[in-house]
Amino acid sequence: MTDLNLPILDLSQLDEGPETAARFRDDLAAATRDVGFFYLVGTGVSPELEERVHRVSRAFFDLPEEDKLAIENITSPHFRGYTRVGGERTQGKVDWREQIDIGPERETVTDPEAADFFRLQGPNLWPDALPELREVVTEWHDKLTEISRKLLRAWALALHAEEDYFDKHFGEPATLIKIVRYPGVHTEEPQQGVGIHKDSGVLTLLWVQPERGGLQVERDGQWVDAPPVPGSFVVNIGEMLEYATQGYLRATNHRVFSPRAPRDRISIPFFFNPALDARLPILELPADLAAQARGVEQDPSNPIHSLYGENALKSRLRAHPDVAERWHADLLTARV
């Protein structure tokens, strides 16, 4: 593993005494200040659960087309369900992948006075032909939520804040799981699986099928490979954590290339973000850390909001223009 381009952190060190825990927190702050990405091992996620998630994901994509299209996201105003190959965009360009999007299982908000971003809240679309999917994904969600909370508490202490700082400002998390399949391509030139982007929220845990590369991270102005490491998650921070630390921690550009046929690739990102109506305040860093904050990288056409729902709505409207046009044409008109 010495030739990997990203650092490896062991979450179990947080349970090995004060000195070891402090060393983990220092490594965590350094990794997300300098790179924005790292591998996380020692999470307690069993190989058996990983295997079940992989197997049920494969089973979903192996369903007949009509079973997948029965829960196509164009039927969901909440951007849930199945997206066929080419149905999502990054930076306006088509991503070559198919996927199912699964969020918190909550009631639709019907209050006409509610903020626009509450349109994202609602029920998931589950395939009748694969009832096991809901059971396994729920277990996966709960386990990764525990890991995410543990990481955020470690970050809070590393930044000299109270351990429950992020807990207090998160509310009920607006999580999102994407189960993604990148089909193999026959082109000589690399095919965009996902275009260059930064995640818009706070924290991402990514599980990747073993021995399937394709993820690249921008580091020191160069694109470096981030191949899967057995028993690990690839972890990265999003723009909201950069915003909250005023650039002391930095969200990082990344992209994915599709595999060469006949291979394909299963990838399952888990996004852990605040409640839609939660505002993540700017964290008051101690003077020595504040002096190292580089400011927030702002794209004038893609502003970062402290209110998570605004970030989430902005991203979904851009990524799924067909869903946006069918269900939220009024928002598109207003934003233009």
Proportion of residues in extended strands: 15-25%
Q: Give me the number of helical elements.
A: 10
Q: Which strands sit side by side, in order, in the main sheet?
A: 1-2-12-9-14-7-6-3
Task: Tell me the distance between the termini.
Answer: 48 Å
Can you say what the CATH homologous superfamily is? B-lactam Antibiotic, Isopenicillin N Synthase, Chain
Main sheet characteristics: 8 strands, mixed
Number of strands: 14
Roughly how much helix do the residues carry, as a percent range? Answer: 25-40%
- Structural class call reads alpha+beta
CATH class (first level) name: Mainly Beta
Shape: globular
Mean pLDDT: 93
CATH architecture, please?
Answer: Sandwich
Kindly give the count of domains.
1
> Which runs of at least 5 residues are low in confidence (pLDDT < 50)?
none
CATH fold title: Jelly Rolls
**CA-atom Rg in angstroms:** 19 Å
Helices and strands, in order, run as EHEHHEEEEHHEEEEEEHEEHHHH
Notable traits:
alpha+beta, 336 residues, globular, 4-stranded antiparallel sheet, Jelly Rolls, 8-stranded mixed sheet
Write the layout of secondary structure elements.
Blueprint: E1 8-10, H1 18-34, E2 37-41, H2 47-61, H3 65-69, E3 81-83, E4 88-90, E5 93-95, E6 98-102, H4 132-158, H5 165-170, E7 176-182, E8 192-197, E9 203-208, E10 215-219, E11 222-225, E12 233-237, H6 239-244, E13 254-257, E14 265-272, H7 287-290, H8 308-319, H9 321-327, H10 329-335
Parallel strand pairs: 1-2
Antiparallel strand pairs: 2-12, 3-6, 4-5, 6-7, 7-14, 8-13, 9-12, 9-14, 10-11, 10-13
